[in-house]
Every structure is written in structure tokens, then in C-alpha cells.
Design goal:
single chain; 4-stranded mixed beta sheet; 7-stranded mixed beta sheet; alpha/beta
Length: 263
């Protein structure tokens, strides 16, 4: 297979190795990128009490590992924003550590953003499917999206679980300047929750253009106990209330505050 160019995009992956399964998944995703794509760099953003990611395990010069000491619930939003600030690429591909998108759809999204200003961010999928068992094992061995040929929300195998329809997380291909202009993810968020959908709502209210394509996104199974779900602080709840119910002027003030992180 001829590798597919990502046109010098930066791929952002946030990581916390709080289970062997999640650690194995991130290595698999990185090996898949290396086998499938060219012309990209990975910003591997890890937050933990000590590094779990072993760069020498893959020894891939395209991977830049950034570790932040953190003993609180996982700061995915902060790590994404740090990566956007570090990056000098025109495009950012935010890719969850265990998500696999159709490479030809990814290529379309990258090319469209580079050739036109009409769209700010692409979601290269419209449904998410969990894969486990024999199918996951086959993908980990072959590192090819072709393993999932013929599978979608209406045609599932025994090793597939339909997770959701249109979703704003998972994988996004975004213009870096747009991500920063609309404030990025809310850096106060901890754990896993609706930070992706909040960014979607906030940015769309202010004019950011989102589009998705009809294609399944495959999620490499891991036990949900590996996730640390928490309630949001009162400060975050107040920000979310502004996003959902505030005036446009109030949302603009919130975004102006968020943009200060990137200056």
C-alpha cells in the first residue's frame, strides 16, 4: 500500500497509561499511523505521576513525546490546548489514542482544509463502532483499515458494538488557527465528559464551520474502568451554562479569556 500523505499535519494524541489495555491501544494506533500515512508528526501528550509511554518501544522519529506531571483526573482538554500551542502546523488532527478513521476520508479532510477556507473542522466519520475479540486482534496484527471492510452501523459482526451516531470527539481534523480563535477545549475540564460537545456548541454559536463525512470510526476496545469519570467543578459548569444559554456577547467574553492561554 502506498502511504497516504497528511501534508505535514500534526497529529495530537493525549495519553494516560492507567491500564495495560489502553497502553497497548496507543502503541497500536501509532503503529497504524506509521504503516498508513506519511508527512506527519505526532505530538504524544502524556499526563501522569510518572511516564508510562516508552518512546524506545517504537523508536519512531515522527513521535514527539511531551510529559506533564499530573496526579489529578486526566486533563485531556489541557493537553490538547498545550499541543495546539506547541504546534506550528497549519492543520491539527486530534486523534483519540484508540480510534481508527478511514484513511481515505482522513486524506479528503486534510486536502479540503488546505485547498479551501469554507470549513474549519472536519469529523471524518458519522458513527462510532467498538471492536474487540478476534477482529481487534486481527487489526492489531495487520494494521490495516481494510480489516473493517463491510462493517458499519447496519452491518455489525459479533466482535462489534455500536457506540453512537454523529459524535464531535474521537477524531477531528482542524485548522489550528480556528481551534485557537474559538478558544480550544475548556482547559478546566478534568476526566472524560462533554468537553468535545461543549467546544462544538461554543464554536458553532460563534460561526465555526463543522462538517462530517459518512464513514464509520472504529474504537479499539478497553475496559471502561480504565476511565476516571468525575463531575465538573462549579467553574466549569458556569462556563458550560454560558456556552449553552448565554448571550453571544457572553460567549465571546468566555472565548476571549480562553484564548489567553495561547498567547
Amino acid at each position: 500500500m502506498t502511504k497516504i500523505s497528511l501534508n505535514n499535519s500534526d497529529v495530537v494524541i493525549s495519553f494516560r497509561g492507567n491500564s495495560k489495555e489502553r497502553t497497548d491501544n496507543v502503541y497500536t494506533t501509532l503503529k497504524y499511523f506509521n504503516a498508513t500515512y506519511s508527512d506527519y508528526q505526532v505530538l504524544l501528550m502524556e499526563a501522569d505521576v510518572a511516564p508510562k509511554f516508552d518512546w524506545n518501544f517504537l523508536a519512531d522519529p515522527k513521535i514527539s513525546h511531551h510529559f506533564v506531571y499530573d496526579n489529578q483526573p486526566f486533563p485531556k482538554s489541557m493537553l490538547y490546548n498545550m499541543a495546539a500551542k506547541l504546534s506550528r502546523s497549519e492543520l491539527l488532527i486530534f486523534n483519540d489514542a484508540d480510534c481508527i478513521a478511514n484513511p481515505y476520508v482522513m486524506s479528503h479532510c486534510v486536502k479540503d482544509l488546505l485547498s479551501s477556507q469554507a470549513i474549519d473542522i472536519w469529523c471524518p466519520f458519522n458513527e462510532m463502532i467498538d471492536v474487540k475479540g478476534t477482529l481487534k486482534k486481527q487489526f492489531c496484527q495487520e494494521l490495516s483499515y481494510d480489516v473493517f471492510a463491510g462493517i458499519d452501523g447496519e452491518s455489525l459482526t459479533d466482535d462489534c458494538i455500536y457506540l453512537s451516531g454523529m459524535h464531535t470527539g474521537g477524531v477531528n481534523v482542524c485548522r489550528r488557527s480556528s481551534y485557537i480563535h474559538y478558544g480550544g477545549l475548556n482547559g478546566k475540564c478534568r476526566g472524560w465528559g462533554p468537553e468535545d460537545s461543549e467546544f462544538h456548541t461554543r464554536s458553532v454559536r460563534l460561526g465555526m464551520s463543522w462538517m462530517s463525512l459518512k464513514s464509520p470510526l472504529f474504537h479499539l476496545f478497553h475496559e471502561q474502568s480504565a476511565r476516571q469519570n468525575i463531575g465538573f467543578s462549579e467553574s466549569v459548569k458556569a462556563d458550560f451554562a454560558i456556552t449553552d444559554f448565554g448571550t453571544i456577547e457572553e460567549v465571546e467574553v468566555l472565548v476571549k479569556e480562553m484564548r489567553q492561554f495561547f498567547s
